[in-house]
Automatic annotation (TrEMBL):
Residues 225-239 have a biased composition (Basic residues). Component of the post-replicative DNA mismatch repair system (MMR). The keyword DNA-binding applies. It holds the Pfam family MutS_III. One of its GO terms (cellular component) is MutSalpha complex. Residues 1-64, 176-341 are annotated as: Disordered. This is DNA mismatch repair protein. Residues 206-224 have a biased composition (Basic and acidic residues). Residues 1-21 have a biased composition (Polar residues). Residues 71-131 form the PWWP domain. One of its GO terms (molecular function) is ATP-dependent DNA damage sensor activity. Belongs to the DNA mismatch repair MutS family.
Length: 1335
C-alpha cells in the first residue's frame, strides 16, 4: 500500500473532502489501478485496515504470534464508556481469529450479557477473570461494581469457570446481524445538541471558538443522521448482493503512516440506560459525511439513505487520509462545493493529527488549560488571591484574572465565573440537551468514567442529560464533588430580557443564564428524581465537629470520638480550618481514609452558635404556614433559658450548635438546606458511655447497670469485626453479615444500629427474645411477612423524595425551579412512579398487619405486639404503635388516574382532591353553560336555528350568522370576521363571559402545573404517620432477621439467660459448648470445636476444682501458637453481643449478668498515619481499658507486652493483670506467652488458669523442632508448659538451618536464665537447709 505523500498534505477537516473543481486523477491512482471515492456509508469509529485495490488482500486480520489470551479464556473486557464486563475470548465469526496484531493489539470477546454481544477490545483493556470471590471483584477492587447487569454477567462467568475451556466455546452464539437488524441500526440516530440553544446566545465568532451550537447546525447542513459505532467489518453477503454492489462507488483507503490498527467494538453491552446515553456529546466525525446525488444543488447536499456495505470493504480509522477519486474511466456527474461560511463552521471539527491514535485520547498535557499561568500548581490562588501556602487558602475557589475572562466567549466566560467559586468541583455544564465538561473537568471525566475527548484545542467531553445519574454517581463514589449547572433561561427569555434592559445589550448579555442547581458529594447525595435509583441501603453521614472542653470530655486517645465515627462512619467531614488539633486530624486521616475532608473558615463558614440560631429563625425551615417558628425538640433543648428570643445557645451545647451551623452553611452551599432541614429530623448525640451516667448519676459498682445500651467503642468494633472487616475492606466474615437477613433497606439500617448498641436492661432484652420465640412458633406468619417485606421499596428514602418535591413550593428562589430540563416528562414519570411505589408499599404494610393480626393475640412479646397491631383496631392493644392509614391510602389512591399519570407523566386530580382545581373546573362549566344559553337566546332573537359558535383560542365564541338572517342583526353585534355565505359577530356579553372563561382556564392550568407538588405536599403533611409505619416495619424486619438466624444457624442455638446483680449475683459469664458465630468450620475443613468459658462463677462440671478459685474474675489463657486463643476471645465477645442484642446464641447454654462495655486489646498493628508504633497502640488501648472499665465490663486482652523487650513486656503484663484482678474486678480473658505470669498468679484466688489444649508427639527436649503438635482447639483448665514456637516456625516453612540455630540459641538462653536463678537463690540463702532446698 502506498503512503500518503507529505507534499500538499491537507488539513484533516470535514470540508477537505469537498472540492470546487474535482480532479480526474491523483498521485495515488497510478499504482492502485483503480480510483478511490469517498463513500457516504462509513462508520466514524470503524478503524480496520483496507488493502489497496491493486492487491487482493483479504481484510481478515492476522493474529499476533504471542498473545497471552487464547480461545475459551474468561476475561474482564472494557469498552470505552462502559465498566469492565465479564467476557469469553472467541474467534471473530468471519475472520476466524481471536486476536489482532499491529501497533495496538486487540482481542475478540463475547460479553456475558443479555442478549450476548461481541467486540474487539484493546489488549490492555483485557484482564483475566478469576471468579467473583477474587479480591479484585470485592469492594475496593478494580472490577467492583453495583451494576446489576455486570453482576448478572459475573454469575454466568462463574458457571463458565467451572467447565473446561473447550466446553466454554459452546457458549459462543452467532451474532451476525440480519438484514432487518442492520436496517434498524441504520435508522438509529445519535442525540444532537438542540440547534436553537446557542443560535441566540452568541455570534458566529463565539460559536466557532466554543465548539458548541455549530455541531448541531452543521450536522443538519452537511451530515445525514449519525450512526453508532458498529462492527469494524460487516459480515459476508450473498454473492447476488455482491453483484448488485459491484458497480457502485467504492472507497479505497491509503495505508496510514502510523500503522495503527485500532478498531472499535462490534456490539456494545446493553447499558441500563438508553443506548443513546452512551454516545459522547454531539461529536461529529468527518467519516460520517455522506456522499450526494448528482442532481443535488451545489450548496445543498442531499442526504442519501444509508445502505449496507459490500463485504470485504474496510472502514477507515479516523486518522486515515481518504482520497476522493473516480472509478476508472468515469467522470463525475457532479462534485459538491462548500461555501466559505460552511467551511468556517466545519473547521470546528478539525481533528488533531493523532485523532485516531489512542495516545491522543489519553494525553491531556497538550490541552489549553495546562498552559494557563494561573493554573500552575505553584501559582494557584483562591478568589481572595491567597496562595496555597497561606494557612487561610480556600481550595474551593480559584482566582482567574479579569483580563483572561474578557478574552473568553460569553458561554465560556460563564463557565470560568462558576469555576472560580467551585474550583474543587467537577461541573456538569448544561448546553442544550447535554451536560458538557471543559478543561480540567473534562480530563477527570475521561480518566474516571470513560468519557471521550471531543475535537478541539481545549479539553472537552460530555454526555446526554438523561445519563446524569450514571456519571454523577460514578464520580461521587470515587470521591469527587459534582456540580450540576442548569440553563435557567430559554432563547425567548433571553430576547425578552435584552429588550427590557435599560442599556444596549452586549454579547455577554445575550447568553442564556446558567446557575448551579446542586452540588453532590458522598455526604450530600439525596437520591432525587434526577439521580434515578435510590442506591444501596447504607446510610451516608456528614460529620461536622469543633473541639474544646465542652459537650463531652474525651481522653487523650480520643476514645469517645473513635466510638462515634465507628458507629456512624461519616463519608464526609467538616472541620474548622486552623483550629483543629493535630491529634484530631491524625485520627481522622488515619481512620477515615476514604472520607472527604473539608476545612471551613471560622466565622464565615463555620458559624458561631448565635449566627446559627439566627439563620435558622430567619429562614423558612421551621416556619409553619402562618409564619410561626416551631423549633425541633432536639434544638429546643440546646437553647438558653435566659434568652426568650431563642437566639442564644446554652453553655452546655454551644459547640453542638456551632457544629450544626457548619452543616447548615454547607447544605446552603450545596443548595440542599431547605430540602433537608425542613424535615425537622434532629437528634442529640451523647457518648454512649456517659449519656445514661449524666441522666441517672454515677452508680456504684455493686448496684445494677442503669444504662440502656452496651458500649462498643471503635477499637472493639474493629477488633471483633462487628460490622466491618478491616482486613478485606468489606463486610465479609463480620457479625453483621452473619446475622442480617433483613428484607428491606430500612430494616438493614435499623439492624446496623441495634448491632452497634446492644441492650443492657434485662426486661428489654427478654422482650426481644420473646419476640424471636413468638416468630419461631409462628413460621407461617414469619414466611408470609418475609414475602411481603421483600416486595417493599425503600420507603424511608422515598418519603424523603416526596418531602423534597412537596416542599419545593417553599423554595421559590431555588435555581432548580428555573432550570430548563429537556427530559422533564421522564423526570415527571419518575416522580409519579416513586409516589405510586410508596402508596403500594404502604398498602403492603396494611396487608402485613392483617396477616399478623390472628397470631398477635398469642404473642408474649410486648414489642412485637406494638409493631404489628394497628392503633384502635382492638381495645386490648392500647399500646399499638402501627397507625391506621387505610383512609389516607384510599384518598391518595383515588386522587388521580394512576395508569394515565404513569404513562403520560401528568397528574389530573380527581374531584375533591384540590379545591382550587375543582373551583376552576366548576367555573369553566358554568361559563360554558351560560354561553350556550346565550346562543339559544340569540337564535330566538334572530329567528334562526342555524346559529353556531365559531373559532379557536382567542378567536373562539364568535356567532356565525348565515346571510339569510343578517337583516335581523341587532346593533350591539360587532363584526369580527366573515366568510362566503356568513358573517361572524361578538357581543359585549360574550366578551365578558369569554374573559371569565379565560380566567378560569388560566386558574385550571396553574393548578395542573402545580398539582403534583400539591398532592405530594398533602401526602407529606402526614409524615409522622408514614414514618411511624416505617419504624414498625423496620423493627419487625429486624426481629424476623434475628428469628431467621435463630432458626437456621449451624449447630446448637440457645436462648441466653440473664441474671441481674441486684438479685444477689456478682458479675459472671457462663458459656457451655460455645462456637464462633462467624466461623462454622476451620480452615482444615473439620467441624468447629466448641468450648466452655466460665468466668466469675463456680464450674459445676469441675468436680475436683477449688470453688473459691473457680470463681475468679480474671482468666489467664496460655497455649501454643496458633492454638486458638484469639478465636476463643473473639468468640466470647461476639456471643455476649448477640445475647444482649436479643438473639439466640451458638451455644448449648449461656448465662450471664449484663455487660455494660466490652474492651478489646487484640492483634498487633501500628498507626503509621498517626505516628504511633505497635507497642504504643497496645498501651493506648490498655490505658483506655484501665480508665473506663467497671466491674460490669468484659475485657479481652491478647498478648500484651510483645511489642517491647521481654522483661519490660512481662512486667507491664503482670501489672495490668494485677490491676484487673485487684482494683477493677471485671470479667477478663488475658492471653499470654509469658509463662512467668503463671507462676506469679497461680495462688491468686481471683485469677483462674486455662489453656488451649494440644497433643505433642515425638516429644524431644534436645530438638523441639522435631516435635509434632496437634492442635485440639479445646479450652481446658490449667497452664500450658510451653508455647511451641518452633512448631509454628516449621509450619511457616522457615529454613531448617535457621530453626536449628534457633533451637540451639534457645537452650543457651534457658540455661543462662536457670543459672542466674540458681545463683540468686544461692546468694540469698542463709543456711545449709535453704541451699539444699534451692537446688
Amino acid at each position: 500500500m502506498s503512503k500518503t505523500p507529505a507534499k500538499g498534505k491537507q488539513t484533516n477537516t470535514l470540508f477537505s473532502y469537498f472540492q470546487k473543481t474535482p480532479k480526474s486523477e491523483t498521485k495515488n491512482t497510478g499504482k492502485s489501478g483503480t480510483d478511490e471515492v469517498l463513500s457516504p456509508r462509513r462508520s466514524p469509529n470503524d478503524r480496520s485496515k483496507t488493502p489497496s485495490a491493486g492487491k487482493k488482500t483479504s481484510p481478515s486480520i492476522k493474529a499476533t504470534e504471542a498473545n497471552e489470551f487464547s480461545e475459551g479464556d474468561l476475561v474482564w473486557a472494557k469498552l470505552e464508556g462502559f465498566p469492565f464486563w465479564p467476557s469469553l475470548v472467541c474467534n471473530h465469526p468471519t475472520d476466524k481469529v481471536h486476536c489482532k496484531g499491529g501497533k495496538t493489539k486487540q482481542v475478540h470477546v463475547q460479553f456475558f450479557d443479555s442478549p450476548p454481544s461481541r467486540a474487539w477490545i484493546k489488549e490492555r483493556y483485557v484482564k483475566p477473570f478469576k471468579g467473583s470471590n477474587d479480591e479484585s471483584f470485592q469492594k475496593g477492587g478494580q472490577f467492583y461494581t453495583l451494576n446489576t447487569q455486570v453482576n448478572k454477567g459475573v454469575k454466568e462467568a462463574d458457571e463458565a469457570l467451572k467447565i473446561d475451556k473447550k466446553d466454554r466455546l459452546s457458549l459462543v452464539v452467532d451474532l451476525l446481524p440480519s438484514s432487518d437488524e442492520e436496517e434498524e441500526e441504520n435508522e438509529e440516530e445519535n442525540m444532537d445538541l438542540d440547534p436553537t440553544i446557542f443560535d441566540t446566545e452568541m455570534s458566529d465568532e463565539d460559536i466557532s471558538k466554543e465548539n458548541h451550537s455549530s455541531k448541531a447546525e452543521d450536522s443538519k447542513e452537511t451530515s445525514p443522521r449519525k450512526r453508532k459505532s458498529m462492527s469494524p467489518q460487516k459480515p459476508r453477503r450473498k454473492a447476488a448482493k455482491e453483484a448488485v454492489l459491484k458497480n457502485k462507488r467504492r472507497r479505497i483507503m491509503v495505508k496510514s503512516e502510523s500503522g495503527d490498527e485500532d478498531s472499535e467494538d462490534d456490539f456494545k453491552p446493553v447499558s441500563s440506560e438508553d443506548d443513546d446515553d452512551d454516545d459522547s456529546a454531539s461529536e461529529l466525525d468527518e467519516n460520517e459525511i455522506s456522499d450526494v446525488e448528482p442532481e443535488s444543488e451545489p450548496e445543498s447536499p442531499v442526504k442519501e439513505p444509508r445502505k449496507r456495505k459490500a463485504p470485504g470493504r474496510g472502514t477507515p480509522a479516523s486518522n486515515k487520509k481518504s482520497i476522493a477519486v473516480l472509478d476508472s474511466g468515469k467522470k463525475p456527474a457532479f462534485s459538491p462545493s462548500v461555501s466559505n461560511n460552511t467551511k468556517t463552521k466545519l473547521s470546528l471539527f478539525s481533528a488533531p493529527e493523532n485523532a485516531g491514535d489512542d495516545s491522543g485520547q489519553k494525553d491531556a498535557s497538550s490541552y489549553f488549560h495546562v498552559s494557563l499561568d494561573f493554573l500552575q500548581p505553584d501559582k494557584l490562588r483562591d478568589n481572595t488571591r491567597k496562595l496555597k501556602s497561606d494557612p487561610d487558602y480556600n481550595p474551593r475557589t480559584l482566582y482567574v484574572p479579569e483580563s483572561f475572562l474578557n478574552k473568553q466567549t460569553p458561554a465560556m466566560r460563564q463557565w470560568w465565573e462558576i469555576k472560580t467559586k467551585h474550583f474543587d468541583t467537577v461541573l456538569f455544564f448544561k448546553v442544550g440537551k447535554f451536560y458538557e465538561l471543559y478543561h480540567m473537568d473534562a480530563v477527570v471525566g475521561v480518566r474516571e468514567v470513560g468519557l471521550i475527548f471531543m475535537k478541539g484545542d481545549f479539553a472537552h467531553s460530555g454526555f446526554p442529560e438523561i445519563a446524569y445519574n450514571r456519571y454523577a454517581d460514578a464520580l461521587v463514589q470515587k470521591g469527587y464533588k459534582v456540580g450540576r449547572v442548569e440553563q435557567t433561561e430559554t432563547p425567548e427569555m433571553v430576547t425578552e430580557r435584552c429588550k427590557n434592559m435599560a442599556r444596549s445589550a452586549n454579547k455577554y448579555d445575550k447568553v442564556v443564564k446558567r446557575e448551579v442547581c446542586q452540588i453532590s458529594t458522598q455526604g450530600t447525595r439525596t437520591y432525587s428524581h434526577l439521580d434515578g435509583d435510590i442506591g444501596d441501603h447504607t446510610s451516608k453521614y456528614i460529620l461536622a465537629f469543633c473541639a474544646k472542653v465542652g459537650q463531652f470530655e474525651d481522653d487523650r486517645h480520643l476514645s469517645r470520638f473513635r466510638t462515634l465515627v465507628a458507629h456512624y462512619t461519616p463519608t464526609q467531614i467538616l472541620y474548622e480550618r486552623g483550629k483543629t488539633s493535630p491529634n484530631t486530624m491524625q485520627l481522622i486521616n488515619a481512620n477515615l481514609l476514604s472520607a472527604l475532608k473539608e476545612g471551613l473558615t471560622p466565622g464565615s463558614e463555620f458559624w458561631e452558635s448565635s449566627k446559627t440560631l439566627k439563620t435558622l429563625a430567619e429562614e423558612a425551615y421551621f416556619k409553619s404556614e402562618d409564619g410561626e417558628i416551631t423549633w425541633p425538640e432536639a434544638i429546643k433543648l440546646m437553647l438558653s433559658e435566659s434568652d426568650t428570643l431563642g437566639l442564644t445557645a446554652s453553655d452546655a451545647y454551644d459547640l453542638a450548635v456551632r457544629s450544626l451551623g457548619a452543616i447548615v452553611w454547607y447544605l446552603q452551599y450545596c443548595l440542599l438546606d431547605e430540602e433537608l432541614l425542613s424535615m425537622k429530623k434532629f437528634e442529640t448525640y451523647m457518648p454512649v458511655d456517659v449519656s445514661e451516667h449524666r441522666a441517672q448519676g454515677a452508680q456504684s459498682g455493686a448496684q445494677a447497670i442503669k444504662q440502656r445500651h452496651m458500649v462498643l467503642d471503635g477499637v472493639t468494633m474493629s477488633n471483633l469485626d462487628v460490622v466491618w472487616n478491616s482486613t478485606t475492606q468489606s463486610t465479609e466474615g463480620t457479625l453483621l453479615e452473619r446475622l442480617s437477613y433483613c428484607s428491606t433497606a430500612f430494616g438493614k439500617r435499623l439492624f446496623h444500629q441495634w448491632l452497634c448498641s446492644p441492650l443492657c436492661q434485662k426486661q428489654a432484652i427478654y422482650d426481644r427474645l420473646d419476640a424471636v420465640g413468638d416468630l419461631l412458633e409462628a413460621p407461617s406468619v414469619m414466611e408470609e411477612s418475609v414475602t411481603i417485606l421483600k416486595k417493599m421499596p425503600d420507603l424511608e428514602r422515598l418519603l424523603s423524595r416526596i418531602h423534597a418535591i412537596g416542599s419545593s413550593g417553599r423554595r421559590k428562589n431555588h435555581p432548580d425551579t428555573r432550570a430548563i430540563l429537556y427530559e422533564e416528562v421522564t423526570y415527571s414519570k419518575r416522580k409519579i412512579e416513586d409516589f405510586l411505589a410508596t402508596i403500594e408499599g404502604f398498602k403492603l404494610a396494611m396487608t402485613l398487619t392483617a396477616a399478623c393480626s390472628g397470631a398477635a393475640t398469642n404473642f408474649k412479646s410486648k414489642l412485637l405486639k406494638q409493631t404489628v397491631c394497628v392503633q384502635g383496631a382492638e381495645p386490648d392493644n392500647a399500646d399499638a404503635r402501627f397507625p391506621d392509614i387505610d383512609d389516607d391510602l384510599k384518598f391518595f389512591e383515588s386522587s388521580f388516574d394512576h395508569k394515565k399519570a404513569k404513562k403520560e407523566g401528568v397528574i389530573v386530580p380527581s374531584k375533591g382532591v384540590d379545591k382550587d382545581y375543582d373551583q376552576a373546573i366548576a367555573d369553566i362549566k358554568d361559563v360554558e353553560g351560560r354561553l350556550q344559553t346565550y346562543l339559544d337566546k340569540q337564535k330566538s332573537v334572530l329567528n334562526c336555528k342555524n346559529l353556531v359558535y365559531w373559532g379557536t383560542a382567542k378567536n373562539r365564541y364568535q356567532i356565525e350568522v348565515p346571510e339569510t338572517a343578517l337583516k335581523n342583526i341587532p346593533h350591539q353585534y360587532e363584526l369580527m370576521s366573515s366568510k362566503k355565505g356568513a358573517k361572524r359577530f361578538r357581543t359585549s356579553d360574550i366578551e365578558e363571559m369569554l374573559a371569565e372563561l379565560t380566567d378560569a382556564e388560566d386558574r385550571k392550568d396553574t393548578c395542573l402545573k402545580d398539582i403534583m407538588r400539591r398532592i405530594f405536599h398533602n401526602f407529606d403533611l402526614k409524615h409522622r404517620k408514614w414514618t411511624a409505619v416505617v419504624e414498625c416495619l423496620s423493627v419487625l424486619d429486624v426481629l424476623i432477621s434475628l428469628a431467621t438466624y435463630s432458626r437456621g444457624g449451624e449447630g446448637d442455638l440457645c436462648r441466653p439467660e440473664f441474671v441481674m446483680p441486684e438479685e444477689g449475683a456478682q458479675p459472671f459469664l457462663e458459656i457451655r459448648e460455645g462456637r464462633h458465630p462467624c466461623v462454622s468450620r476451620t480452615f482444615e475443613g473439620g467441624d468447629f470445636i466448641p468450648n466452655d468459658t466460665i468466668i466469675g462463677t463456680k464450674d459445676d462440671q469441675d468436680e475436683d476444682g477449688d470453688s473459691s478459685y473457680s470463681e475468679g474474675q480474671v482468666v489467664l489463657v496460655t497455649g501454643p501458637n496458633m492454638g486458638g486463643k484469639s478465636t476463643l476471645m473473639r468468640q466470647v465477645g461476639l456471643i455476649t453481643i448477640m445475647a444482649q442484642m436479643g438473639c439466640y446464641v451458638p451455644a448449648q447454654k449461656c448465662r450471664l449478668t449484663p455487660i455494660d462495655r466490652i474492651f478489646t486489646r487484640l492483634g498487633a498493628s501500628d498507626r503509621i498515619m498517626a505516628g504511633e508504633s505497635t507497642f504504643y497502640v497496645e498501651l493506648s488501648e490498655t490505658s483506655s481499658i484501665l480508665q473506663h472499665a467497671t466491674k460490669h465490663s468484659l475485657v479481652l486482652m491478647d498478648e500484651l507486652g510483645r511489642g517491647t523487650a521481654t522483661y519490660d513486656g512481662t512486667a507491664i503484663a503482670c501489672a495490668v493483670v494485677k490491676e484487673l484482678s485487684k482494683t477493677v474486678g471485671c470479667r477478663s480473658l488475658f492471653s499470654t506467652h509469658y509463662h512467668s505470669l503463671v507462676g506469679e498468679f497461680q495462688l491468686d484466688r481471683n485469677v483462674r488458669l486455662g489453656h488451649m489444649a494440644c497433643m505433642v508427639e515425638n516429644e524431644n527436649e534436645e530438638d523441639p523442632s522435631q516435635e509434632t503438635i496437634t492442635f485440639l482447639y479445646k479450652f481446658v483448665k490449667g497452664a500450658c508448659p510451653k508455647s511451641y514456637g518452633f512448631n509454628a516456625a516449621r509450619l511457616a516453612h522457615l529454613p531448617e538451618e535457621v530453626i536449628q540455630s534457633a533451637v540451639k540459641k534457645s537452650r543457651e538462653f534457658e540455661q543462662s536464665v536457670y543459672s542466674c536463678k540458681m545463683f540468686r537463690n544461692l546468694w540469698c540463702s542463709s543456711s545449709a537447709q535453704e541451699i539444699q532446698k534451692a537446688f
